[in-house]
Automatic annotation (TrEMBL):
<dbReference type="InterPro" id="IPR001763">
    <property type="entry name" value="Rhodanese-like_dom"/>
</dbReference>
<dbReference type="InterPro" id="IPR036873">
    <property type="entry name" value="Rhodanese-like_dom_sf"/>
</dbReference>
<dbReference type="GO" id="GO:0016705">
    <property type="term" value="F:oxidoreductase activity, acting on paired donors, with incorporation or reduction of molecular oxygen"/>
</dbReference>
<comment type="similarity">
    <text>Belongs to the TrhO family.</text>
</comment>
<dbReference type="InterPro" id="IPR040503">
    <property type="entry name" value="TRHO_N"/>
</dbReference>
<dbReference type="Pfam" id="PF00581">
    <property type="entry name" value="Rhodanese"/>
</dbReference>
<protein>
    <recommendedName>
        <fullName>tRNA uridine(34) hydroxylase</fullName>
        <ecNumber>1.14.-.-</ecNumber>
    </recommendedName>
</protein>
<comment type="function">
    <text>Catalyzes oxygen-dependent 5-hydroxyuridine (ho5U) modification at position 34 in tRNAs.</text>
</comment>
<keyword id="KW-0560">Oxidoreductase</keyword>
<feature type="domain" description="Rhodanese">
    <location>
        <begin position="127"/>
        <end position="220"/>
    </location>
</feature>
<keyword id="KW-0819">tRNA processing</keyword>
<dbReference type="InterPro" id="IPR020936">
    <property type="entry name" value="TrhO"/>
</dbReference>
<dbReference type="GO" id="GO:0006400">
    <property type="term" value="P:tRNA modification"/>
</dbReference>
<dbReference type="Pfam" id="PF17773">
    <property type="entry name" value="UPF0176_N"/>
</dbReference>
Amino acid sequence: MNRFKVLALYKFADFKDCAALKPELALFCCARGIRGTFILAPEGINGTVAGTPTAIDELMDWFETASLWAGRLAGAEAKFSSATEMPFLRMKVRLKPEIVTLRAPEADPSKLVGTHVEAQDWNRLISRNDVTLIDTRNDYEVKLGTFSNARDPATQSFTEFKDYVAKLDPAQHPKVAMFCTGGIRCEKASAYMLQQGFKEVFHLKGGILKYLESVPETESRFNGECFVFDERVSVVHGLAEGEAVLCRGCRNPMRPNEAVGSLCAACAEAAPAGASERERQMELARARGEAHLGDDAAATAARNKAAKLARRKQSVD
């Protein structure tokens, strides 16, 4: 049973007074048990939160009627999904210079942006031979799933996307189509590429999430699972929770058959001598319902590292 409703929302707009918006938004969400993260910046709002269906519906109504918010989110990109368990630990409202970090002031989607393509029209666009298809997400996301024939910029953070674009010749790529998880990164990337001289730039409206929600699986050009930045780890068609798990070491996503205990192959290989055997014994103890000496310490260390890495990934997304 899906007990929680998940909202992913963003909009590029004039939010120069974002500091004044933070307190009421945090208070409203916390009072209703909503958890997740909203980022406010002079260029707009971005975030994913979860709560009971009633709480999320109340939040959307409040955005329309609260004095400081009324009208600000008209036309915002908002997507809803569900989760069986609460996918976030706490509620955070953060003030940042950008809602998605590119560090390219010339990229302003509120002034110049590429052409939105609806999910139902995406397959037809990316089937064209004259279109260069680019995945604007980071390498660990692309590894889990992407569209057929998409180029992987092999970035570890969105700021590195500028370096990838610098290697492309606009004359050789007159038509570019881009996509990301929810639409925000490729929207800003489209603004940047237009500024760099690319003639026609398209981006998937609502991102992969909207595509997986709208396009029948039998017609899908997306292979694998879509990584999401919460405890669900990944989603598949219909926005159902996927099978991907997180490595307890590096917190990168992996498929269950790639796991070595609760680590990815790279972390397992890099683990200190005896760590793999200790992990195996801990897993056996948990399977028997028994405590294992060192289990609490190991779990605490893993959680602390996981939280740190998760914060880092969210800050660059």
